[in-house]
# Entry
Amino acid sequence: MSGIGFLGVGTIIRSRVSVVGLTTAASLWSIAGVGLAVESGLFIVSAFATVLILASLLVLSKVHDKVSCKQGK
# Structure
């Protein structure tokens, strides 16, 4: 898991006013957890977690698009 931490930190980039890569870092951590669950034989939990992760990424992407459009105007 410490290796995933280094990968996650490497994907976070801070510019002057914004931070980029938090979603990628969080996705790396969550998929590492799913991989550990699969390795442990928890296939149903892994499938549920994968669906939950994908659904939340989809919903948050749409929310981000709406919020960023309002800020740009």
